[in-house]
Amino acid sequence: MSTVIDRRIETVQATPNLYKTLFATCIGNALEWFDIAVYGFFASYIAHAFFPTQDPAVSLLLTFGSFGVSFLIRPLGAVVLGAYADRVGRKKALLLSISLMTLGGAIIVLMPSWRSIGLIAPVMILLARLIQGFSAGGEFGSSTAFLVEHFPHRRAFIASWQFATQGASTLLASAFGLGLTHWLSESQIQDWGWRIPFAFGLLIGPVGLYIRRHVHEPESFVTREKVRSPLTLLFARQKTLMLLATGLMVISTGINYMLNYVPTYATRSLHLPGSAAFSATLLAGVILTVVTPLMGLLAEKTGRRPLMWGSLGLLILTIYPAFSQVVDHPTPARLLVLVGWMALLKSVYFATVPSMMADLFPISTRASGMAITYNVAVTVFGGFAPLICTLLITATGTSLAPGYYLMVLALVSGWALLKSQVRLRD
Q: How many CB atoms lie under 10 A from the CB of residue 179?
């Protein structure tokens, strides 16, 4: 009994190191988004390897379908791993999620193509995506709660790194795409080159697992009032909070997955070269990585709401003409401007969202609440964004469909932001 008490005291008294805590939490988020970005960027090659049909459009739809279906399990992962983090601990949940991510990545890297083993190949790829989706379901809630509870006085800045790492992952994935298109032939990328970035992602897992074993639980979590069933409390008394948190995430996740869709959109709909598409996503990665934490710092001085309202307003006013310019005159330069503008607006808004979501929920249900709402938004409005946009373009015959989609999502997030302001003020 005394040993247990001593360990608890040690945990509470341990002074967290800012950089170690950031690295330990954000590396899992980085791995998650790197794999997502790579899958989106190399969708046409994956379609050829695992989902071949006589019609390339159908093959691509099957690939994006598996990309989207894997997101359906994210809410389940959010429920299971989020409740686990609220009951047992943030650290144990983070260790479990990164282990599962690594397993899913290993399956994708090592799986032979459809031509080698037949139907087993696409089934196993889908299984890998489901494993990764389940693990990713609990990652955001647990890691963000871990960060803001360790450093509550710096919550806007510290939580912004959650999304800065997403930018870094997009940057790295884009660099792989750009490098492979320059150094390898199309047939080499198709045969084996597309596996290289997935293999690199697989190396991140063991590093993250080691680092996460050597961090402590936040003091506020250890000393919290215990709740027997966080999920019961969440769904019985905090449904409004969940709705608002989901709404806050809608536009942010929509833009993020739109950026992942850019290589396919640019090459299939705008008929631009692959190098131009990957250059645009590389620019987006730089902007997201650099600007997001800077906006987190700015939010500590100016407040979160001016930044959030400013980015939403600019998005609604400018996204249609921006898409129109690229569709009417598709050039690599215009594509760069469009993608860079979306990434900039996303950075301003995205930097403030995690800390605001964390403020909506009490500690006893924070990981569960954030995990569930984040993943509902990601699943419905993000994971299926490439598929929705592909279908919208096919059905309407216009390449402007992605712009309309983002405008609708911006209005939804504006409503959630307005209601959240009232809730937090009360």
A: 15
295: tokens are: 């906006």
Of the CA atoms within 13 Å of residue 255, those in its CB half-sphere come to 31
* pLDDT at residue 240 is higher than 90: yes
3-state SS record for the chain: CHHHHHHHHHHHHCCCCHHHHHHHHHHHHHHHHHHHHHHHHCHHHHHHHHCCCCCHHHHHHHHHHHHHHHHHCHHHHHHHHHHHHHHCCHHHHHHHHHHHHHHHHHHHHHCCCHHHHCCHHHHHHHHHHHHHHHHHHHHHHHHHHHHHHHCHHHHHHHHHHHHHHHHHHHHHHHHHHHHHHHHCCHHHHHHHHCHHHHHHHHHHHHHHHHHHCCCCCCHHHHCCCCCCCHHHHHHHHCHHHHHHHHHHHHHHHHHHHHHHHHHHHHHHHCCCCHHHHHHHHHHHHHHHHHHHHHHHHHHHHHCHHHHHHHHHHHHHHHHHHHHHHHHHCCCHHHHHHHHHHHHHHHHHHHCCHHHHHHHHCCHHHHHHHHHHHHHHHHHHHHHCHHHHHHHHHHHHCCCCHHHHHHHHHHHHHHHHHHHHHHHHHC
| pLDDT higher than 80, residue 421 | yes
The model scores a pTM over 0.85: no
One-letter identity of residue 248: L
Confidence at residue 336, expressed as pLDDT on a 0 to 100 scale:
86
Residue 94 CB-half CA count within 13 A? 33
**Amino acid occupying residue 145:** A
What single-letter DSSP state applies at residue 194?
A: T
Can you spell out the DSSP letters for 367-406?
A: HHHHHHHHHHHIIIIIITHHHHHHHHHHHH--TTHHHHHH
Which residue carries 């260790």 as its tokens? 95
pLDDT at 328: 81
Measured distance CA(26)–CA(20) in Å, rounded: 10
Q: Are the C-beta atoms of residues 143 and 28 closer than 8 Å to each other?
A: yes
Instruction: Answer for the pair 68, 383: CB distance below 8 angstroms, yes or no.
Output: yes
CA-CA distances (angstroms) from residue 40 to 67, 83, 101, 170, 261?
8, 30, 17, 10, 6
Q: Give the pLDDT confidence score for residue 9 in this predicted structure.
A: 43
- 51-84 residue pLDDT tens: 766 666 666 666 766 666 777 888 899 999 999 9
